[in-house]
Amino acid sequence: MRVLPGLLLAMGIGAATGLGLTAYSVGGGTGAGTLRIGGWQVTPKAGTTDADPYARAVAARLGTLPLALADGLAIIADRDNAGEHLDGRCTYKVAGAMPPA
Length: 101
Hints:
Blueprint: H1 3-27, E1 35-37, E2 40-42, H2 53-62, E3 76-77
Antiparallel strand pairs: 1-2, 2-3
């Protein structure tokens, strides 16, 4: 009977650690295959069968439906060039060359 409390404590610590690390790994909104370029981020394999489990977990957490690779890439920006979060009260201009189709 003395083993049971220690076993329950170890299982509780293990479960809390596993759930905490899982929440931390998908909490940032990016998966393992996500590329960041400046303020932009893209997950090239998000809509494919080769998508990593973290990208799938992020999509499930955010409630998004990733585009299939043949349909294009979803390129997302949540920060400006200075690294500050985007603000709905500000006006932003997206400029640059149009990528080839």
